[in-house]
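Supplementary material to the annual report.
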Amino acid sequence: MTAVALRPPDVVMRLARMGASYPTRLSFLRCLIRRAAREGWTVRRPLWELSDTGYGRAVYTVDTPARRYSLVAFSTPLEDSRRTDRVIAQAWDTSYVLYDGVPDMDEIARLEANVPLQEAGRFTARDIVLARANKSVRLFDAVVDALARGGQPDAETLRDVGYLLRTTAVYGNGKFGIADRDEIAGRPEMAGPFQAEMLTVWLIRSFTIQLAEHVAQRRNPARAVRLDPVLRQTLGVGNATGLGMAPFLVRHPVLMHHWFHARECALARVRSLPQASDPARAGFADALESLRMRVRHWRSADPRQAEAIKVVAKDLAALADAGSTLLDSQPLPWDALYRFAEERLSLEGQEACVAVMLEPHGALVDDLAETMAADENVGFTLDGRVGCGALKALLDRHYAWARQFDFRDPASIARFWYISAEKLEPRLGERFEEDGAELEQPLAIARDAMALSRALEHERPDRPLAEFLLLHPEWRHVARRAQIVAQYPYAEIRDNLTGADMRPVDLLRSKLAFFGARNFDPRSDRWVRIALFAGEPLVEEIRAADRPGPAA
Amino acid sequence: MIELSLNEVEALAAKVARGAGFPWGLADDIGRAARALAMRGAPWAEALLALARHAGDFEPPSPERAARWRRGEMDLPSDIPLCPVRTAALLTDTGLALGAEPLRLERVGLPIWIEGLLAAAGPAWHDIEIRGDALSFSAAVAISPAAQGAVPARVPRATIALDLLADLNVIAGRVYVPESERSRARGAGGGTVDEE
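Predicted assembly:
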């Protein structure tokens, strides 16, 4: 079997392509769903204390083979004028904690005093994830009205919006006193990236649906009905994501590498297959048709995304037309399909093609999900015994891509990343128009790598790096990063993150696609709305759902 | 007192270090070191405040002095105490091979940070003996290979007094950029109230 090489980082790690990412079967919520189905997780609702208008508290408990986790949910009245998706908000319709175990009444009281306050509350090591969500008011009310009258809401509208509530923050890893990731990373069900966060959102999804059904039932006990199961599965949880998430990708280079490397390995495995089996062809056709259906319902007010949606719809039609013939190719049918996409389709079309190609090949690629977590202590210790010449050579080799940017051109350094004093959140400033550039965060990687390379020109090549850093500690973070990138080729975004034309939403989309997000709807160049779990099984039905078997 | 997660300790310490003037790379090391100290139940917060306030009172080891250490010769201290962070960074960068004799450093400022940085670099290779107070401004330190199988204590959560946290937050605040009307308007993408 001819092994097809991985797509190189110079192709994969560019902002334009990252900004065209699609979720795949290796996305984190898909991994969670597969595990839950495989292990037969069950969900109970031990507490449901909500008023007629839907305010109060609820607890959902998930039984996994080794442990229990509970979503503790609070629903509180919120004036319309205070409902904002931005992180500056101070009150929300609903707030949540994923709790380690099953909370007793004392613990629920403690949570009730803190969870609705979010960042202003304090949390303990029993609290694994902290989150909040606001209603999509018009749709929520429309669904309640329809159900209370004994009817169903308009399916088209439901599909177009995709969710009843949207989260505006989902915090993990020790924020505001919640559990450190170290505390749960050793548990198989939490070992993969963002599994606790995905479980939280999955449970929130069920809460949002049952909340609407509850209000409808209380409004009209005699006639109210439940949401149709097909519509229920359509609904996900919305999410509004802004700049806060963007620096994560840069600050976690080893983790980044593992995510992209796993996906690229999966693609290379499929491209290397010597034949396209009938079940795999059928699975591909189904996945393609399902994606085309989603694209038809994909709405974005952003002109650029709206155009990209039109183009990807055409791309997918072209793929559907050509797919069958391409899959007859010898000797590498899937490679022929991918190369067709690479030659003929837009970046969105190419990345969509990758996602669809992986879909029927679970048996071949799903094990790669186990490689997506990373020990980020690896690579932290610098090797200062190497010579300055060796480090310079390493920089010149692994940052050759950075030479395309001319950092003497003000447009190349037009932006700077900083932490806002007001919200303690990452922000993007205009270097030549705003104050604060001297407090820039170290995200100008390309610029700094080039600058270190130039600084090393003046050093004796055999001078140990440790000695250079003793005199020039300001280069320490760049030297450390270069040594990491030399080991982990997908660790670096190979683009300029400070350029005037840089679009932060490209970073957001890439990360969100790894989560499993769909329906990307950029609201500006720096924040985006998405849906999670739309179309996936409900958590309480996972045990009864068809166990995913080998599709290929 | 307030309880902090170890991630909060690390994030706070890195910001404090940066606010106190340490470059990014060393600030990252200090964040990890503070976490390692907190995990061992050591007084990381007091150590952090002292480091931030006195960072300018210490000096890095000179290349000549470091060369003496490498050759196993006796340390020749200068009048100014050694910066524990710069010293430990050099030791971890060079992966200093320890022989049967401990490496003895004279006049080290806040030697607790030697312990913190070496602990953050890996559990394996050292035992540290500090003659005197780990928080003193000038103490002698002896570093030896770790005893086989020694596992340090692990505390999963940190605690800190509220006034100390307030002092540290002031220093951490130096890394933040105050908002202007302009940056507020476009920094996060414009103010939008849900319209749906």
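Confidence is low (pLDDT under 50) at residues 546-552 of chain A.
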